[in-house]
Amino acid sequence: MKTAVLITIGDEILSGNTVDTNSNFIATQLKEIGIKVLSIFTIPDEESAIIATLKKAFGMADVVFTTGGLGPTKDDITKKAYADFFEDEMVFSDEVYEHLRTYLEKRNRLWILDHNRDQAMVLSKAKIFLNFYGTAPCMILEKNGVYCFSLPGVPYEVKPLVKDQIIPFLKEKLALDSIVTRIVSVVDIPESILSETIEEWELALPKHISLSYLPIGSRVKLRLTGTGKSRTILEKELDSEIQKLIPLIGENIIATHEDKIEKILGELLIGKKLTISVAESCTGGELAHLITSVAGSSAYFLGGIVTYATQKKIDILNVNPRTVEDFTVVSEQVATEMATGCQSLFKTDIAVSTTGVAGPGRGEDGKDVGTVFYTVRIEGGEVTSKLFLPHLERLDFMNFVSQKILQDIVSLLIKKNKSPQLY
Amino acid sequence: MKTAVLITIGDEILSGNTVDTNSNFIATQLKEIGIKVLSIFTIPDEESAIIATLKKAFGMADVVFTTGGLGPTKDDITKKAYADFFEDEMVFSDEVYEHLRTYLEKRNRLWILDHNRDQAMVLSKAKIFLNFYGTAPCMILEKNGVYCFSLPGVPYEVKPLVKDQIIPFLKEKLALDSIVTRIVSVVDIPESILSETIEEWELALPKHISLSYLPIGSRVKLRLTGTGKSRTILEKELDSEIQKLIPLIGENIIATHEDKIEKILGELLIGKKLTISVAESCTGGELAHLITSVAGSSAYFLGGIVTYATQKKIDILNVNPRTVEDFTVVSEQVATEMATGCQSLFKTDIAVSTTGVAGPGRGEDGKDVGTVFYTVRIEGGEVTSKLFLPHLERLDFMNFVSQKILQDIVSLLIKKNKSPQLY
């Protein structure tokens, strides 16, 4: 199996200013063509660190990626390190310069061409992939049979370079194994019990199929990864392993193909021809955002409202002011009325509401930080639940609650199928 | 200056299944107490890789963190590696077991205590920080004056352990330098021109103050980092450097204290006592989510609506069906009417709207993927703008557009101050 090492060059990552999302994207892309990432090294913008890490990476893997360290104000150090490591020199590339000119011209920025001129300097031995969404090109270098790709650091420049140019290049150059992954989503069972329940099954897995446990929120994802020559055979093998798993924990499985809860829900809704809308308070738009992050969600998501101020819950969602007075705004009763109001406003089969305190300050009605009530209305029936998550920071709280709600809707829809009187 | 190395243990990171956010959090926390992260190594769940990386890290830094590799199904490998590296053995800790019992009891999960019993096995020399939000404790080990912290992988368990226990511990144990950071946000000037314009200023910076360029969307953040004994002196020095910068690029500066655009906007709105609401289509809730990600945003954010389906724009925001027919739903005209409808619905000083095509499929009216119109209404005036971002993937598109809109509102509010007739 072919292997890769990713090197992230960037003081901004080490200082905590930026989250490195490039490595995740590149790892996902490489996995799909059967290349396994062995390590990710994040290092400072320093010539000696870059050279030392390139050396180490070249001793470990078949493919090396560097991201970052390129750009009009950073080029020098990284390119010097490259020149040193590859025992090469920088030359001016007419092709890159011409591309840069066209790129800037299209964006009415031709006046900065002279200031970006150095970005056309590349190693003499490098093959070049032009960057259609930024000014720094990608250099491809080879040494002792190992390929190295130097990428810029901006994620929306990295993505098309990897997807459209590097992946096809690697597919052509390397004789690659196939990797097939399947994720089984399991709910309502703790990781430790789960691992005991399926231990025998796990031990009997063939050697080329590996299993990982990925706990996320209140769900555990079981990831099966198979490696081999034929994608078709691997797919069949994984299918048959999952079939053996179902008698053991079938009740707890909510999906065997899709990974993300928002996609699992989307497929269910399309299959059942149901529409959905949301009325949010403490999740502040995250729930709508999670649902609309799925391409094609306009087929079932008609809309959402964030009634952040209490008065807006009353004015727009018809929450009764008496209910707020009697039970406070963070209450089961208000959640229920919000869901009803949401369903009338958007006229959807399913309507969801949230009301709670994301923190760090207490809510206006004095409820504890981390408290949330949410209602899921499916056609005429409804379920209201409470969560108390005082340990989560504001953004994690919003995300956890939103994920949990989608998970609940999925569970309800699946169970409803089996016993329609459930709620 | 004290230094740290972070080790992320996890096949799920290397396979691209999970984004590593722990390193970012830990780096930010360490920076605040003057500890610099030298490198982040992400490695597989393998004993030999863990031992080799611990060795390397102990040769580089004063403090070492590992995250991940702990948990009921993973403990074995990581703890074995620790025992080997620290030449120690595992012992059963009554304190950890008792804590585990209480933790599970509170959550009505006492029945799984036996299955999690091994989590009470710790190195004999380790000091322990109890984990109040999960089952794996944090071990603290010392070797040759270097401190090592082994943390679980779940972000909401890592955060409180680091913030409440490890940071106070490090502050007490190490004689730390102060680090002070200031971020200057600059708009409407390309990075290459910016660097030329401020070159002389940059070269004249004292040696203990460093500068980085962090481009984000259509903004460049200049980060000044000062290191020294006295926080008060450093703060004054950074202030005075920023004062020298203002005559050079004052027109382009939108903030000198805050880093995040949603916080910059929040402070402005509180200062000016203005309220805001949003009506979203293609951003799908991301704009509301970005605004409400700020603690205290309920002071100015009254609400938002996601009118994803065209009919909802007509029904709820009073968009004229004729306008949709004449100009299509992704148009300047619909954006304008949505903003007007939003302002009437929520009765806010500022109302914002978005309508566009996030992709990957074309919009129903055939507009190109990546097209968006957005309107910012401030009291009676309004500005409608268009962006075309065909290179961005769905989620990046939603985020870029939302960031850009907040940036525009900030620019408008700042300029409005200087010349009220601007729009």
TrEMBL record, chains A, B:
Give the family this protein belongs to, as stated in its UniProt record: Belongs to the CinA family.
Q: What organism, scientifically named, is this protein from?
A: Epilithonimonas bovis DSM 19482
> Cross-referenced HAMAP family, in alphabetical order?
CinA_B (MF_00226_B)
Protein known as:
CinA-like protein
Q: Where is the MoaB/Mog domain?
A: 5-173
Question: What domain of life does the native source organism fall in?
Answer: Bacteria
